[in-house]
């Protein structure tokens, strides 16, 4: 085990959880043992069991988030916690804390923004078939829409740089947060890597909060929304092509009749054809305008990303140091 991983850097292990009293103590103890210098933060999402008490007894810094949903908890953690390296992991004791030092070392050595812990399981109880199929389906869809992605897009085990965390504009409320993180990474073409990690079954008494169909549908809606926001020209260009083909299909019989008789007996069909072609033009123009807006937003996100690496205490020290110089300049 690499006990010196992240030496000289402040590491925060951030754990979003809900009703994980049966597992959270083990999670906190395992990560404190794997990374003795790290601070473990447990953000409880209004649990009705003893999650907070168990986490606090195990040595974690415990806080509570009132808005239900994993995305809301992650957004609060990213805003509150100031560190150099962030390790996000679920509180269900299914992920291998022993892999954390190697993931941190990979992040540092390769100067990455995110290292993803891909799940490798040898227990059929660890990864339900419905969840496995849904993960494959959604990962494949994101790959087709946004380009190269990860083999395990929905894993809850990730290591982030400070720059990534402080520049990530999280909007998701629930389990679709992992999808939003993935698309944000692809959009800005950030440096990332994957590392296989052991994935185990939940401890006795711990139950999954993920609904295969409900949360899968929410993730699918997010993917479609992100497609409209991040790839508008492709989306509206597809609509434009569809409407153009439909308009041509309506127009061809009208043209054949006109060439044969010199008359236009299907005048309503001609009107429909022109209307549909106008929809095609409007769709294309919408895509072009939205694409320019998207490019401007991406440039702003890139600038925020570049500016997000400096710690708050470093900014304060720099401002104090520069104040006499600025005073003299004034």
From TrEMBL:
Annotated TM spans: 233-255, 267-289
One Gene Ontology molecular-function label: transferase activity
Alphabetical keyword list: Membrane, Transferase, Transmembrane, Transmembrane helix
InterPro entries, alphabetized: Glyco_trans_2-like, Glycosyltransferase_2, Nucleotide-diphossugar_trans
Top-rank taxon: Bacteria
Pfam families the UniProt entry points to: Glycos_transf_2 (PF00535)
Location of the Glycosyltransferase 2-like domain: 13-166
Protein's UniProt name: Glycosyl transferase
């Amino acid at each position: 085990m690499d006990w010196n991983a992240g030496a000289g850097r402040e590491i925060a292990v951030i754990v979003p959880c809900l009703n994980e009293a049966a597992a959270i103590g083990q999670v906190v103890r395992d990560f404190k043992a794997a990374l003795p210098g790290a601070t473990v933060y447990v953000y409880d999402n209004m649990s009705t069991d003893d999650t907070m008490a168990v986490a606090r007894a195990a040595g974690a810094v415990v806080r509570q988030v009132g808005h239900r949903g994993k995305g809301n908890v992650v957004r609060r953690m990213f805003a509150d916690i100031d560190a150099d390296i962030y390790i996000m992991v679920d509180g269900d004791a299914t992920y291998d804390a022993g892999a954390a030092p190697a993931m941190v070392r990979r992040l540092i050595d390769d100067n990455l923004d995110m290292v993803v812990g891909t799940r490798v399981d040898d227990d059929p109880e660890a990864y339900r078939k419905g969840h496995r199929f849904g993960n494959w389906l959604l990962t494949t869809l994101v790959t087709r829409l946004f380009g190269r992605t990860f083999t395990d897009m929905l894993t809850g085990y990730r290591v982030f740089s400070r720059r990534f965390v402080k520049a990530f504009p999280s909007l998701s409320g629930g389990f679709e947060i992992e999808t939003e993180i993935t698309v944000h990474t692809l959009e800005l073409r950030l440096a990332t890597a994957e590392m296989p990690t052991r994935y185990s079954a939940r401890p006795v008494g711990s139950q999954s909060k993920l609904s295969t169909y409900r949360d899968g549908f929410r993730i699918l809606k997010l993917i479609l929304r992100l497609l409209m926001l991040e790839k508008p020209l492709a989306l509206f260009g597809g609509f434009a092509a569809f409407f153009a083909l439909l308009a041509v299909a309506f127009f061809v019989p009208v043209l054949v009749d006109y060439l044969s008789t010199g008359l236009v007996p299907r005048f309503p069909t001609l009107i429909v054809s022109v209307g549909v072609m106008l929809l095609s033009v409007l769709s294309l123009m919408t895509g072009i305008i939205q694409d320019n807006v998207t490019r401007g937003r991406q440039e702003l996100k890139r600038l925020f990303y570049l500016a997000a690496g400096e710690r708050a205490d470093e900014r304060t020290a720099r401002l104090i140091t520069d104040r006499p110089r600025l005073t003299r300049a004034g």
